[in-house]
Amino acid sequence: MSRCSDRALLELLAERGPLQVTHLAAALDVHPLTVTQRCDALQSNGYVRRVSADVFGLTEDGREHLASLTDATDSPELPDPSNSTESADSPE
């Protein structure tokens, strides 16, 4: 099983609309209880809403939050100095 990220949950809800917990869990390859716990946390932040007992949907705040997560991920990354191709012992 993989980790259930908020971004992955929000992306699924944005793409497919309101979904049952079991469908979310299957798509994310996680246990339904994990999905319920993440959705409850996202609901407390206003990013998802419970449509029925086992169905969650994305809110407008959730769409905006997802966009901010996507924008942050799409921004260029700074190079990692630990991955430098030059050796400290190389002559200059």
Automatic annotation (TrEMBL):
<dbReference type="InterPro" id="IPR036388">
    <property type="entry name" value="WH-like_DNA-bd_sf"/>
</dbReference>
<feature type="region of interest" description="Disordered">
    <location>
        <begin position="65"/>
        <end position="92"/>
    </location>
</feature>
<dbReference type="Pfam" id="PF01047">
    <property type="entry name" value="MarR"/>
</dbReference>
<dbReference type="InterPro" id="IPR000835">
    <property type="entry name" value="HTH_MarR-typ"/>
</dbReference>
<protein>
    <recommendedName>
        <fullName>HTH marR-type domain-containing protein</fullName>
    </recommendedName>
</protein>
<dbReference type="InterPro" id="IPR036390">
    <property type="entry name" value="WH_DNA-bd_sf"/>
</dbReference>
<feature type="domain" description="HTH marR-type">
    <location>
        <begin position="9"/>
        <end position="51"/>
    </location>
</feature>
<feature type="compositionally biased region" description="Polar residues">
    <location>
        <begin position="81"/>
        <end position="92"/>
    </location>
</feature>
<dbReference type="GO" id="GO:0003700">
    <property type="term" value="F:DNA-binding transcription factor activity"/>
</dbReference>
